[in-house]
Write a structure and sequence with these properties.
Enzyme class: transferase
Radius of gyration: 52 Å
InterPro entries: HAMP_dom, HATPase_C_sf, HATPase_dom, His_kinase_dom, HisK_dim/P_dom, HisK_dim/P_sf, Sig_transdc_His_kin-like_C, TCS_sensor_his_kinase
Largest sheet: 5 strands, antiparallel
Order of helices and strands: HHEEHEEEHHHEHEEHEEHEE
GO cellular component, one term: plasma membrane
Mean pLDDT: 81
Main location: membrane
Number of helices: 9
Number of strands: 12
Helix content: 40-55%
Number of domains: 3
Strand order of the largest sheet: 2-1-5-4-3
Catalytic activity: ATP + protein L-histidine = ADP + protein N-phospho-L-histidine
CATH topology of the largest domain: Beta-Lactamase
């Protein structure tokens, strides 16, 4: 499982981002301050050393001969070393590119690049370097000719001294910067939490309102203050909620009108259809007796079949209307499941076409009429769509407080695009069966009857082929 490297909560992201920016700003400021302070400390030490060395050289150089010998240079270095005082520098002097002469042997360590540059320089030069891991500063001071400040006299005075006191000052700066960065980061974390809380409070209210709306409370609104982007989002949410509420109310009104229209039409059609069904029954009898011409008998048989189909559709519409109106009620009784299944098959003369597997003595408290409707719809569907010579099986068993009745056929099964909608109203398994005997309401009525019993009706395709409908209902202890 891949781990998240960054926090995924908006609050955590805001806090982390704010802290990182604060830490980066603090570190950048500390780094710039450190570099400037270090350069200032070292520059001040360098300028002070050059000034002091120049003052000593200016006071001692006039006593030197025009062409000083090595002994003269050594005496100058001795006097300069003594004048160093607390600075504790070590000096040497060179004349016209000769080797530096110091008061003691060995002399001070001088960078070769500084000596090479000092040979032709007319101004003081300085270079920082390390000697045995310790920081030092080397100064080369060309001595100019009297009266001619831009002309070198050939004499160069060198001095080196330790920068360890300055290094300690720089180290103190680093420690102070580190110590100051931690409180800044901690304070930024606190400020980030407060800012995130204030910034996300409207977002939290918006999320809570959206969750409330998801439960169906379309009248939910949020209080909006301010004129920023979050406030605009809140106003947009309120507008969306108002539109959804209005659309939902309009849809509910249209749905109620449609249901009322279907119920009214079904009720109005029921009486004339009952009369038509009675008449077509008599006509069917006359057509079967052979007393009518073949063309007339065929036409009357067609009218009788369509009338019966229309009567069944009206009955289904009225049943659906009762479910929609919440008027459907259960009339339960303690019944034997096997006997109920056999009666359902016998009433429709399906005994020889359906295999029944129900345990003896399996009883449940159900509404027998409604379960008969469920079984009739499932078995009728299986016989119509199960294949040329379909074999349908019914299996019932009780376990874990549930009664399960399974209806299976050996046909091609239910197409994948139809399966999720098989219990929708006016859905038919075969789009080409526009004139099939079903109304498209049978499975919807079966599902409603299952829900009325507190159970479920599930459709699936068996791995070996064929459709499987599973009716599951609560069942008490056997």
């Amino acid at each position: 499982m891949r781990r998240r490297l960054l926090p995924h909560g908006l609050r955590a992201r805001l806090v982390v981002t704010f802290v990182l920016l604060s830490a980066l700003s603090a570190l950048t400021t500390a780094a710039l301050t450190f570099h400037q302070a270090r350069d200032a400390i070292l520059g001040r030490a360098q300028d002070s050393a050059v000034h002091d060395l120049r003052a000593q050289v200016d006071s001692l150089a006039p006593d030197l001969p025009a062409h000083p010998a090595a002994s003269d240079l050594r005496n100058l270095a001795v006097q300069l070393d003594r004048a160093g005082g607390a600075r504790d520098w070590r000096t040497a002097a060179a004349y016209r590119g000769g080797p530096p002469t110091a008061a003691h042997t060995p002399g001070p360590v001088l960078p070769a690049s500084l000596r090479a540059s000092a040979a032709s320089a007319t101004m003081a030069l300085a270079q920082r370097f390390h000697d045995q891991g310790r920081p030092r500063l080397a100064i080369a001071l060309p001595v100019t000719s009297a009266g001619r400040p831009s002309t070198s006299s050939g004499l160069v005075v060198y001095a080196t001294f330790s920068l360890e006191p300055q290094q300690q000052d720089v180290a103190s700066l680093i420690a102070a910067a580190r110590a100051g960065a931690l409180p800044v980061v901690a304070a930024s974390a606190v400020l980030a939490l407060l800012a995130a809380r204030r910034f996300l409070r409207p977002v939290s209210r918006l999320r809570a309102a959206a969750e409330t709306m998801a439960t169906g409370a379309l009248s939910t609104r949020i209080d909006v203050t301010g004129h920023d982007e979050i406030a605009e989002l809140g106003r947009t949410f309120n507008t969306m909620a108002a539109t959804l509420q209005a659309d939902a109310a309009a849809l509910r009104g249209m749905e109620a009108k449609a249901r009322r229209f279907a119920a009214d039409v079904s009720h109005e059609l029921r009486t004339p259809l009952a009369a038509m069904t009675a008449v077509t029954g008599i006509v069917d009898h006359d057509a079967a007796s052979g007393r009518l011409a073949p063309e007339t008998a065929e036409a009357l048989a067609l009218v009788a079949g369509e009338t019966r189909k229309l009567a069944r559709m009206v009955e289904d519409l009225m049943e659906i209307s009762r479910f929609d109106a919440g008027a459907a009620r259960l009339n339960t009784d303690e019944i034997d499941i096997g006997e109920l299944v056999r009666k359902t098959l016998a009433l429709r003369q399906w005994q020889g076409r359906v295999d029944v597997d129900t345990p003896e003595g399996l009883r449940a408290r159900l509404d027998p009429r409604r379960i008969d409707v469920v079984l009739a719809n499932l078995v009728g569907n299986a016989l119509r769509h199960g294949g040329p010579q379909p074999r349908v099986s019914i299996h019932a068993h009780a376990s874990s407080g549930a009664l399960t009745i399974t209806v299976r056929d050996d046909g091609p099964g239910i197409r994948g695009e139809v399966l999720p909608h098989v219990f929708d109203r006016f859905t038919k398994g075969d789009g080409a069966r526009t004139r099939s005997g079903g109304s498209g309401l049978g499975l919807a009525i079966a599902a409603e009857n299952a829900r009325l019993h507190g159970g479920t009706l599930i459709a699936a395709n068996a791995p070996e082929g064929g459709a499987v409908f599973t009716l599951t209902m609560p069942h008490g202890p056997e």
